[in-house]
Write a structure and sequence with these properties.
By secondary structure, the chain is α/β, with parallel strands linked by helices. It has a seven-stranded mixed beta sheet with strand order 9-8-7-4-3-10-21. Strands 14-13-12-18 form a four-stranded parallel beta sheet. The protein has a three-stranded antiparallel beta sheet with strand order 15-16-17, with no helix packed on it. Helix 4 packs parallel to helix 18 (477-492) and helix 14 packs across helix 15 (423-431). The longest helix is centred in the middle third of the chain and has 21 residues, at 237-257.
Length: 587
Amino acid sequence: MRGFAFFDRVSRAFHDYPSVPKVLVVVAVSGCGLVAYAEANPERKLASSAPVLTSAEVDNKKKKVVVLGTGWAGTSFLRNLKNPDYEVHVISPRNYFAFTPLLPSVTCGTVEARSIVEPIRNIARKKTVDVQFSEAACLKIDAVNQKIYCRSNVENNLNGQEEFVVDYDYLIVAVGANVNTFNTPGVVENCHFLKEVEDAQKIRRTVIDCFERASLPTVSDEEKKRILHFAVVGGGPTGVEFAAALHDFVNEDLVKLYPRVKDLVKITLLEAGDHILNMFDKRITAFAEEKFQRDGINVKTGSMVVKVTEKEIFTKELKNGGEVSTMPYGMALWSTGVGTRPFIKDFMSQVGQANRRVLATDEWLRVEGCDKVYAIGDCATINQRKVMEDIAAIFRKADKDNSGTLTVEEYKAAINDICERYPQVQLYLKSKQMKNMVDLLKETPDVSKGSAELNIEDFKTALSKVDSQMKNLPATGQVAAQQGVYLAKCFNRMEECEKNPEGPLRFRGEGRHRFRPFRYKHLGQFAPLGGEQTAAQLPGDWVSIGHSSQWLWYSVYTSKQVSWRNRALVVTDWARRFIWGRDSSRI
């Protein structure tokens, strides 16, 4: 036992002091070998050899970065920030990151809630950057004085200290968004949402409650049908995946436990548009609608919910002249729309964006009107400048000899900066199957006739249609994560790029931008449809539907977990489901 006690002390030492060098210790205990291994963080080792600074010198040198939110955007920023010259303060009402694409699986017991969450403090303690975390909600942003006002989220007696103020040098707003109810009466009071882990757990309990209530001997058959009618409002990825997961849960697990009510279960998916999954390829949309019809999931398109009561949903049938009909239900999930948080609305009013739906940023993710505030994720959108707004300035910059015309060589010299500054140019070229911007000149009459120079009107004609390809980025975790990574890399190289800018030309100013603007790279999207079948739409317009795509979904969602602990737990949950089925206990 002494050997094991010694091993335990050595193991604790490795965990408590991770900055010691890499070492492998082999201890012989009663003929057996015990191995202890620790890996030092080389960056910590280098930091320890640096000159020792006093606290005052550290405070003067380090810039304070406050990060609001621990979702995809905020966590990606934190994980990729490596510059020790910053002091980071993370503030969020939840002290963990949640892998939200698996929330529908949590609602039905396929995956446990603890398997898809990772404590933020676990992520922070592995950083070489000084990171502090506060479990609190932001109440107000004061951009003028660079302060934020917060309230503690801990429900205990804090002796009147539950509210506090935090100063910042840079602010990263990554608070995500609320569900948008479109002010539909009764939605907040009677519908479930699926944005947080707590929402998924609540739905899981409600589903089991519905089956338990329907199994009581005192309940009439008509009431049982109502209780076991599950309504899903919204035909997007979340609504479709939840409907599919619920169908599998009912037909593979619950019917065995509740055989007397299995024929009374009904699932209805309500969508105001003409099709479900309208952001996917038409082949995926058609397959999903056909599969749901075969599975017995009632898909009602053209049905806009106008009111929800405790037991009924009122819908306006857009295909029948706006006729209003009612539908009894036992549980309803509202999964449509993205809304703005109240303190973000207040902040938008401060910076002159009161009429917008979400915060507007420039291409470098800075909030318009605030040089020290950045916004990433669902709470913001990039306000991409149009080429035609800057066309005169672009022409002047490209006209090196101030002749009033552009030679083909001058035009070609400006191509890279134009494409980098305005992403819609590349999108337009791709849509027209053009190789580069030189091909745009073929649509210009004078150049096509053999002229070697372009005047301002020719230049406008060549670029007149590129703004038609401007698109807002979708409010997805994939976009938020890429924005967090991009912004962290900018902060890592802030000082270097101040001295040596690497961005495109400033067409309306002098010099170059510090950084290259943010570019979103779409890596594909999945739509699990139940029955171990998934639809995948990958880059290059490649579409795959079926069981093979399901295994690809398993692989991708395992690799995207933020820790090995999460990967192990998720895979274990999936294996448990294959062997013993889903957990149907009400906890």
